[in-house]
C-alpha cells in the first residue's frame, strides 16, 4: 500500500442550470434556478409538479454506437468527455493519452436508468402488470368471476397502456371493447397473453433489451467502452451519498497506488412519472410552490416543505499528483480526506451521529485543522430535520470555528448521486476564484444557525480547504475534503 497524493485535474458537468462546467458555474454566480414545472402526461395528478430539469441536452456522434441510450447514461458520457478534455487526457480521436491499464472509473448512482419512462416502466413494470392480470383471468373458470376481472382489471390496464403497447396489441384492446362474445374475448386474450409474454421477454433480454440498461454497473461499463478504460471500473450505490462515496473510493485507489488516473463522479436521471409518483405518495416532495418553481428548493429555510428532485451528472478526473506533474497537467485541486459511515441500527431515522463520525474520519485523513476549513458544501436538500441535524453535527466537530455553509441544491433541486460530484466541482471553482456561493431561497433560517449560513455571494475570499457532504437514505454519510490546487 502506498501513500500517494491525489490531484483533481479535470471537471465535467451536466446540470439543470447549465451544461458544461463553465455554464454550471456561471449559473451559480447568477443565482439561476433550474427548477421548473414538469410536463409529462398526467403530471397534473401529482401534488408536486416541479423538478430540476436539464434542458437543451445533446450528445455527439461519438457515442451513438453504444447499447445504452438512457438519459442517465448520456449525462454521464457528456460529463466524462468534458472532464477528460479538461484534464488533457483525450486526443482528437477520443483516445486516452495515458496507459489505459492504469486508468480506472468509479461512479455513484442511486437509480441509474431504472426509473426512466421508456425503460423500467414501459418495458418491464407495465408488461409485468399486464402479464399477471391476463394470467389471472385465464386461470379463472367461473364466467362471472372472469367478467369482473375483465371489467375491473384487464380492460382498465389495457386502456391505461395504450401509449406503451405495440399497435397490433392496441387493436386487440380496441376489439375487446367492442362487445364481442365471451368466447371470442377468451380467444383474443389468450392470443394477447402469448404475444405479450414474448414481447416482454425480448424487451428485457434482447440485444438492446432493458437488462442492459437497468443494472447500475451499466454506467461504468459504457464509459469504459467509450474511452477504452482497462484498469477496472466500479459503481457505488450509497443512495444520495453515492457521488461523494465514488470520489472517495477513487481517492483511495490512487492513494494506494492501484491506479494513476480514476474517472470519478455520479449521475442520475429520475424525473419520470413512476419515480415522482412514488415520492409524491409518501409526501417527500415540495408541493407548495408549483406556480413558483424557482422558489421550491429551500434548504435550511423554515418555509421549506420537502425536497425537489432533479437530474444531472458530475465528473472529476483524479490523478496521482506525481504522474500529473510529470505530464504537465493543470492541478485544479488536491483531495486530502474522505470519511464514510453508516448507522445500520436506525432505519431512516435522522441523527447527527453518522455525520459527526464521517467528518471526524475525513479530517483525520489530513493534516488540516478544523479552523483551516473555509467552506462546507452541505448535503441539505430541504428536509428540515435532516438539514438541521447536519448543522448540529458541524457544531459538534468544529466548535466555535464553524465554516461558512450553503447548499447548491437550492439552485437545481436534488440530483441524487450527481449531487456530491457537482458539490465537489463547485468547491474546486470556489477555491480557484475566491468565490463562495450562497443558498437560494433562504429567507427564514433558524436563528441559532443564521450566522454561518451563506445568504449572499462572497467574493475575494481566500479559501484553502473545503468539504463536500453527502448523506443518503439508509444513513450513509460521506465527506470529502479538498484543498486548493497550484
CATH topology of the largest domain: Peroxisomal Thiolase, Chain A, domain 1
Order of helices and strands: EEHEEHEHHHHHHEHEHEHEHEHEHHEE
> How many angstroms separate the termini?
26 Å
Helix content: 25-40%
**Shape label:** globular
CATH structural class of the largest domain: Alpha Beta
* Spatial extent as radius of gyration: 24 Å
CATH superfamily of the largest domain: Thiolase/Chalcone synthase
Seen as an oligomer or otherwise, the chain set is single chain
Low-confidence runs: 203-209
What's the short story on this structure?
The chain has 486 residues and is of the alpha/beta class. It has helices spanning 21-30, 71-86, 117-139, 143-160, 167-176, 182-205, 211-214, 218-227, 242-255, 273-281, 321-326, 353-364, 384-398, 409-412, 417-433; strands at 6-15, 18-19, 35-37, 50-52, 103-108, 233-236, 261-269, 311-320, 333-342, 375-377, 404-406, 465-472, 476-484.
Write out key terms for the chains shown.
single chain; 486 residues; alpha/beta; Peroxisomal Thiolase, Chain A, domain 1; 2 domains; eleven-stranded mixed β-sheet; two-stranded antiparallel sheet; 15 helices; 40% helix; 16% strand; globular
Secondary structure layout:
Elements: E1 6-15, E2 18-19, H1 21-30, E3 35-37, E4 50-52, H2 71-86, E5 103-108, H3 117-139, H4 143-160, H5 167-176, H6 182-205, H7 211-214, H8 218-227, E6 233-236, H9 242-255, E7 261-269, H10 273-281, E8 311-320, H11 321-326, E9 333-342, H12 353-364, E10 375-377, H13 384-398, E11 404-406, H14 409-412, H15 417-433, E12 465-472, E13 476-484
Parallel strand pairs: 5-6, 5-7, 10-11, 10-12
Antiparallel strand pairs: 1-2, 1-8, 1-9, 3-4, 7-8, 9-13, 12-13
Helix pairs in contact: 2-8, 3-4, 3-6, 9-15, 12-13
